[in-house]
Amino acid sequence: MVAPGITVDGSTKIMGVIGDPIAQVMTPxxxxxxxxxRKVNIVCVPLHISVHExxxxxxxxxxxxxxxxxxxxLPHKQAAMTLCDSLEPLAERVGAVNxxxxxxxxxxxxYQFDGKGFVRGLKGQGHTPSxxxxxxxxxxxxxxxxxxxxxxxxxxxxxxxNRTHAKAEELAEAVNRKMGRSFARAGDxxxxxxxxxxxxxxxxxxxxxxxxxxxxxxxxxxxxAEVIAKPEVTPFLEAARARGAQIHSGIHMIxxxxxxxxxxxxxxxxxx
Length: 272
What we know:
This protein folds into 2 domains: about 15-115 and about 255-270, Leucine Dehydrogenase, chain A, domain 1 (Rossmann fold, 3-Layer(aba) Sandwich), CATH 3.40.50; about 115-250, Rossmann fold (3-Layer(aba) Sandwich). The protein has 8 helices and 12 strands. The protein has helices spanning about 25-40, 55-65, 90-95, 115-125, 140-155, 165-180, 235-240, 250-270, and strands spanning about 15-20, 40-50, 65-70, 85, 100, 110, 135, 155-160, 185, 195-200, 225, 245-250. A 6-stranded mixed β-sheet has the order 2-1-3-5-6-4. The protein is globular.
């Protein structure tokens, strides 16, 4: 449903969100009311595009003259980089994009808001990344952005646990090189007391998914966070809460970045 205050007409600009699957995305629900409040004639809609159809779909997106851009969710955040006409420096450094905007010259430029959104979401809920020791599960698009954002926010350390250990090592080395300090390392998915533990994998999108690790390892000193926004409380978060841990839904990462994205897209509206 289009948010109250938005009338879809011939001058409405479209913002898409592409992914596979797409039913879990919360961006349209959260950003359309912001567009309405800003009184900009933009509507955000989900677009289901499979991995195998991304190249073809990209040409179609480029051909839509009233499309001002689109958000990107899994599994396209890294593949989309090679299709963008240009990248902002942060997206280039992170190696993944989660927003593409049509610029004034019609080109598609890639941007990255995941890391900023995750940190803003934590702080908005009263949590302090600065000085914290963190464990992150995953080394894909969102995980890469979060790793850099935590380092820039002043987190004390980050252990990256990934199914492919070499990818975790590669990410840790990239962050350490950029930050000029020994901040990140590859390790095992074994949380330690007092850590912020982040599930940045896709495990939890389906009710049949296994948990990222044995939640018997969780205790009440930990904050367990997700990047998955739907369901807002995943089985992983439920299990962690049962162990006495604080939990932090992925919806806060979405809410932490949508106002930034809305302003970014509203800026583009007048140029398209």
